Structures are given as structure tokens and as C-alpha cells.
Amino acid sequence: MPDQSVLKLQFLSRLSFVGSKPANFTNAQWAALVYFQRFNNYSRTVGGFASFHSTTRASSSQTINGLVKRGLLRRVPNPQDQRSVLFELTEDAKSVTRNGRQGALSQAMSLLSKEQLTSLENTLHDVLVGIYEPPGQPIPGKCEGCGHFRERTDLSATEMPKFCTRLRVDLAEEDMKCECIHHTTARQH
Questions:
Q1: Domain co-membership, 84 together with 147
Q2: pTM for the full predicted model
Q3: CA-based torsion, 114, 118, 119, 121: positive or negative
Q4: Computed from CA positions of residues 108, 123, 186, 34, in that sequence, does the dihedral angle turn out positive or negative?
């Protein structure tokens, strides 16, 4: 039975990725655009992309630089680290990712009940935790539910109510809606 599930997951992954990629992008370029669309500001680095896709920084840098040259990504200073830059999607890239066919998987999943989606999410998480090396390595996710996430009640005038203890930064609502490469579930933390 596990072999059938593995095959179905592999096939679903291939269909959802390859089926969504426009013809004028390599797999690596499309993966980068989808990554930078879905992840928060603190994850939008060469290292974050390389870590998520289990590839080298050099290979990731080459892919990202190609997208910068095409006008699909732009470099912005990293306020947390003067030695690095963050990458943002340009309006052209937002249009491309919005018009990509990733919606087919989302559309199919929208037919599932809330209970089925919750069960699927929990099952996939448990499988990821079981195979992810090294044990305890962060598994991307959203801020709420992360072991580093804190809500503050004793705020100064300049602080925001949501805070990441790993990065030591206030979290904007926009960041809360995106995935984070540094996410660690409460179960892992």
C-alpha cells in the first residue's frame, strides 16, 4: 500500500509542477518564480531558495540571476543583513505566476471537505517530518503554528504584535500570509 501512495504522490507532484509551467521557462526558473511568490520576505534569498529545493547556492544564484536579467525578479536590500539581498517578483512575474496553471491542483483540492484537507495536511506533515534530514530541520510553513512565533501584548509604540524569535523581527500581516523557510512546528521545537 505505501508503494501505491508514493507513486501517486510522485505523479501528483510531477503533474502539478510540469502541468503548471509555461513553455518559455525551465523547470528551475519556474520553481524559483513559484518560490518567490509563495515565501515571505525573510525567505526570499538565494540561500532560502537553495535550501528549499535542495540545490547549491551557485545553481540557485544562476537561476535567480537569469530571472533578474529577464526583468522578472528584482534585488532589494536586506534590512536584516547588509551582506545579502532579497528578491521580489516584478509586476511581469506576478502576471506570469497568476496566469500559470497551478490553479488546477488548488481547484481539485477545493473539492475536498475541510476535514479531508486537515487530515491530508497533517498526514503530509508527518511524512515530511519522517523523511526530512537532518531530524528537526525546519519544514516550510506559515508563521502561526511555528515554534518561533510569538504574540506580544506589552508593546512599545514601534513594535508590532506578532514577532519571530528566530529572526528577532516584527512580523507584518503580509509576511504572516506567506510561507517561511525558517518555520519550525511546535511539535519539532
A1: no
A2: 0.78
A3: positive
A4: negative
